[in-house]
Structure formats: C-alpha cells, structure tokens
C-alpha cells in the first residue's frame, strides 16, 4: 500500500457492551463499514468514527453509555479545534430505547441506529457527514444527528455482506432475534422487537461460509434461541434441534453451542439432540431467574420451578455430564425471604457449573417497574452476596471434579503470563496451559491439573494433540 493510500484509510473504533448478540452485531457493523474504507482501530483517539454498541438491560449498563459519550465529546471538541472531526454513533439497545433522549442529552452524537437498522449505516453515515460538514462551515441546522430506530420491513440479514467474524477458530452466528415472552422485568421485547427466526437456508449458508473461513466452533445466537422456527426451502419449519443436526453435518466443524434459551422452549427434540449430536457441546445456558413459583409467576416466566427441575433431569438423562449455567435475579418486587430461600434451594438441588446473577433493576416502561413493594437496595445486595457465594462454591466444585481428566481445549488467546495460552473446555471452562501461540485457533488435548474459582490449569498432552 502506498503512503497516500494508507493515509486515506479511515478508522472505526467499535465498543461493545452487553451480550454476545451485540458482539455479533459489532462484527457485522465492521463488515458493513469495511467497503467504505473503514479499518478497525484500537482506540477512539485514533478513529474517525466511534460506534458504541450499547446495552439497555440494566440501568448500570445504559448509564455507562452516557459517561462514555461525555468523554468522546471532549475528543471531538479537540479534533475540531485541529480542523478535523470525530463522528460518534450510538447503536444497539440504548439507541433503540432512548433514541431522541440520547440526542438531547449529548448533542455531540451524530448517528443513533437501532439493532434492526444497522445495515443502513452507510446511508446514515453519509447523511451525518453531510450535516457535520455544513455545521463546520458555520451553518445552523435544526435537530442534532441522524436517527434510525425503525424496525424496517426488509430483514437486515438480507442486506449484510458475507461475514468476516472468525476469531481464533470460533464465530458467532445470529439465527433468531427478538422476544415475545414479555417477562415483566425485561426490556428486550421493546428494544429488539418481536421474535424473528432467520430462514434455515440462509443460516446454513452463513455457517458454511464461517467454517470455510476457518471456524471450527459456532455459537448460534438469539435472545430466545431455542424458540427458533426458521422456514426451510421446502416450506417446512425447522426447529433448533433440526438446525443443529444440519449444521453438525458441515465438514470440519468441531463444536456447536447455542445461547440464550428459555425453559419453555426446551423441546424433546432438542433434549435428545444433546445426547446424539457429537459436536453439540455439553454446556447449556438456561436462565431460570428465580426458584419461587410466586415470583416466577409475577415475572411472567410461564413456568414454575418443577418444570425447570424436570427439564434438568431429562437433559441429564441424555447427557449426564451436561454443565448447566443460568441467570438469576434477586430482589424482584415483592420477593420475600421465603421466595429468596426457594431460589437458594433450587440452586442447591440443581447444581450449576456457572451462572450470572443480578440485582433487580427497575427498567422504565416494563410492568415490573410499576409494581408496588420494590425491594430496598440493602436487601438486594445481601441476597446477591449470599446467592453468589453459593454459586461460586458450586462452580469451584464443578471445576474440581474435572481435575485429572484429559479433555479437548479450543485455544482462543494468549494467557495472562508470557508463554501461556488460554482456551475453553467442552464445558466452557477457561483453561490455561504453557503452550505455543501457534495453537491458538485449534483444539488440543489437555490434562487438567488444578482447579481455581473460575479457571483450570492444564498441560498439553502431546501424543494426543492430533487426536483431540
Ligand atoms: N434487572 C436485573 N436483571 C435483568 N435481566 C434482564 N432484565 C433485568 C432487570 N431488569 C437479566 C436476566 C436475563 C439477563 C440477560 O439479564 O437474568 O436473563
Ligand atoms: Fe427478556 Fe424474558 Fe424475553 Fe428473555 S424471555 S429476552 S428475559 S422477555
């Protein structure tokens, strides 16, 4: 590349908050921007365009965005002083939920784009650049940036370029979006919209392209991924189990994962697939939120604790070594000590290998926010601490059980110390070993030698390396 060409290259810095769906979306935004000449940058200071791909799930997550925007405004002001500019875009769920509010609170924002509209980024960017140039020339324009928070009738998936998001042998693949469940604490049905499954053929095509680009692991994503019901070429409807089986036939693909599931959509076929599809990893993230029937009802989860218990039994019948992970919320309005004890008891009975747990966060516009009997912060904090202590103990026990085993590890990145590499076991545990960086992106056999709270130490078993 000549110096001139190098200089004309534009840079985009994308910061991702929240879930894996956002990680996937960020990759796709990079894909959309690449043909416009945008290469990825490691910092806002070196970028011409900054995209914050935001999360609205809890108050803390969305407030972070505003403080980051304050910092970016300062960079922009400095840039303008030098006669240049910095374009600022807010994407994702905060953009969807608070579009106008963002522009009002932070006028330095040039673009607000919702999760269903980012395939239109090139047009939005052109429009925003035009406006910015006029402003720099001293024109006064009404309104702030450019806003697109529509749920356009065309699917963004039909308008996105081929994916380039394979990192160290692993890639996300979005197959379903949105949610119709309306849990009373959750903003997702409002920010991501109604449930939508991508057609099976288009998912399969993308899966093959990702494998051809070097992926040996695919994680299928959706807010309600096991509610997947994609149209197939012959007009029939494929379930997630059917799709997983078809993806399992792609040559060279070694691992399949999917997230996030809902207990109500865990059908027989999917449970059976866990025992039959060798690539399907023995790990399932199945959020239960609470162990109290009364609270589950108030959350509008559509199932009680018994259904969850039965599901776990049936899954473990098919796949005895299945590692279970879940999400928990403490301090939902009206949660009594007895309700909380019921959650602790459920955790005790089931045994989790990993978990995410949160204090209930009151989200404007959700039915939960209007409920009487909101729980004081101090009570939430005490319950969360007790719950996390129990879950941490279970995670450590789960890790300990694996010590002494030799397992395949997919290496993803360098470890914390020089000479170390870090990867994932089939049960999604972090495993670090002394090993060459050349193994990153591939699977090697590792003997697990020591368990820690959230990781395991291991050593590569050379003779098995090829067989793993
Ligand atoms: N407060 C706390 N946690 C929440 N979650 C979703 N909405 C809220 C909220 N208002 C948690 C749920 C969900 C996970 C992604 O985030 O546990 O499964
Ligand atoms: Fe939110 Fe409930 Fe839908 Fe999950 S199932 S995305 S928690 S509304």
From TrEMBL:
Its EC number is 2.8.4.3. It holds the Pfam family UPF0004. It is an enzyme of class 2 (transferase). [4Fe-4S] cluster 1 binds at residues 19, 55, 93. Monomer. HAMAP family: tRNA_metthiotr_MiaB (MF_01864). This is tRNA-2-methylthio-N(6)-dimethylallyladenosine synthase. The gene is miaB.
